[in-house]
Amino acid sequence: MNTARIRRGFPQTWVPWIAAGILLSGCARMPSRGMEALPTSLSEICKANSVSLQFDSVTQVVTLNKNNVTAKVLVGSDVVLIDSEKILLSGPVRRMKEGLFVPPDFGRKVMERFGARDDFAIKKFREIVIDPGHGGKDPGARGRSGLDEKIVVLDIAKRLKRSLEDKGINVIMTRNSDEFLSLKQRTEIACRSKADLFISIHANSSRAKNAEGFEVYFLRELDSKEKKNDELKDNQRIKFRNLAMSRSAPAVENIVWDMMYSYKQGESRRLAEYLMLRTPNSLDAANRGSKSCAFFVLRNTLIPAILVEVGFVSNVKEERLLKTGTYRERIANSLAKHILDYANKD
To answer: Interior CA angle at 344 toward 340 and 346, to 5°?
Structure first.
């Protein structure tokens, strides 16, 4: 499949809507049999309500706009997305020779939303997987005084969890104690969840004693071979089991995977860049920048994913800071604040 061609078929700004439908609602439902009544012409109902209608024949995405409210739906789906809210219809949107048709409850459930814009508290991330690196028999990096990375990052992850949950985010931890998990297990947890974001927390180490600072990694562009690795294929099957789309439809699965990948890569990069503009300053830490990579946990998740290096345990000064609960709390609160700021920005 020519995935580049698929990506050119719709604007980059549409990808979050499409991916959000997949991740938050079990999207891409294939047409169900029958409706509760005769379908209604979408163009006629939009005209009657002064709602603008756009249809992309390549992606099969319908976009409706009025009063700064945007609704999107995929032809063949019975799920409409307004921001990150899911609206379930009595039947799918259909494309016929005469045009686009919607089930009779479309007007009541969707058109009334164009009267005024709802202000959602959280617009991008409603559930987040936090992955404290290493654990159990794998201590990770070790500082000069014997401070283990696995202990530091677990404590920061727990503090980050509390901070995010206080703001209404549902959080899933890959581990809650000093236990060993394989990299594959970590990504499978993310793929079985309904999470919108995966955050892996780590502490750095270097032979250079003066190496210091905070950095965030996001997924680089994968080549065709990397996109077909066994772990990623396994995780795709796990994720796709939760999507209500026709089985034995490889073309549909390929399109869905390509949309998810495009959204994941772009969103991960933008979030990493946003965090690096703000978090190091709030911690008085050296800014090492955002960097692309192909770490296992970033490569084999299907949702936006970042890996955060909170500092160097090999640096005497930063190890001393990372030993303290006060600094760990500052890291967690700063990450939570800036993740939520990013989620709510226009």
So the answer is: 145
Give tens-digit pLDDT for 333-342. 999 999 999 9
Q: Which two tokens stand for residue 296?
A: 């296992």
Q: Which two tokens stand for residue 309?
A: 């290096």
Q: How would you list the strands of the sheet with 99-102, edge to edge?
A: 40-41, 99-102, 94-96
Domains (range + CATH), the chain: 3-115 (3.30.457.10), 127-344 (3.40.630.40)
Which residues, 6 or more positions from 267, have their beta carbon under 8 angstroms from its beta carbon?
Answer: 16, 19, 124, 304
In terms of pTM, does the model score above 0.85?
Answer: no
Range name among 120-124, 180-184, 196-200, 303-307 with the lowest pLDDT average: 120-124
